[in-house]
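User: Okay, second chain of the day. Same drill as before: sequence in, structure tokens out.
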Amino acid sequence: MFKLGLGQDIGIDLGTATVIAYVKGKGIVLREPSVVAVDSNTGEVLAVGQEARRMLGRTPGNIVATRPLREGVISDYTVTEKMLKYFINKVCGKFIFAPRIMICIPSQVTEVEKKAVIDAASQAGARKVYLIEEPIAAAIGAGIDISKPCGNMVVDIGGGTTDIAVISLGGSVVNTSLKVAGDKFDEYIVKYIKKKHNVMIGERTAEDLKVNIGCVYPKIQDTEMDVRGRDLVSGLPKTLTIHSSEMLEALIEPAMMIVDAVHSVLERTPPELAADISDKGIYMTGGGCLIDGLDKLLQEKTGINVMIAQDTVSCVALGTGKALDNLDALEGKTTRR
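Assistant: Same drill. Structure tokens below.
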């Protein structure tokens, strides 16, 4: 438990797949899957984070292990509030004064979705809630100086959404957010194996395949991995050997959706900023950009140099934390309650 002083500031990357918390002066203090296990009879929370993730797809009837955030926004308000409360208590211990919290959100959420995040954090114990757009937080976390009058392009691929933005003078000039990211890649893997091998695999198995042998650009050496699933003909368990060349077939479609979205943002970018991006390149952040070959694919299709930021998974949380130090400067760019 971290015992914090008065009026503590916390930055939270409230991700579809992972919640990362940053505490001012301490750095990243929490990194847990955004999964909650709830008893459906009593509504009581049984497990949160890593413990709850192990229960996904393995629970009896009365226990439901869910991910309360879908595609970057809150899909289950009550469970999200309980999850936030648990994480804030875990980070803060017993605080005397409620903390100020900055939470990052996808760049194109509605006012209703913004209000849901602010309300959930307030109910969970925040004194003040600030919102910051994910691409801006990702850019700060990647070490880009966004205050200058020159264009920087950030592609943040998370679990639920991919946020693409051209940033100049501390704000987004052109941005888009699409609901194609890590979760969508998993879905495509499940569909592909069902269609090609007539075998049903679970979400977790699909994620393991994506992490270990997933690729969106031809590999020099084909790799393979054994997975188990349910044969849809016999209904019995079956073991398959999947190759990375098959993963390429499964994942190229959602990967091209991201490339097309980057292309459309570049088309809408003012010429001066487009010239800056051509010189500096495109920065990729978020766990989703770690799929093998995604940077090569984007570079080939746009003709612009693509760089993967250091510590991609934590970029948004680090940027949110750094933004806490400059709340006054960002006051105009953030939504405050």
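The CA atoms of residues 278 and 304 lie 6 Å apart.

User: Thanks, on to the next one.
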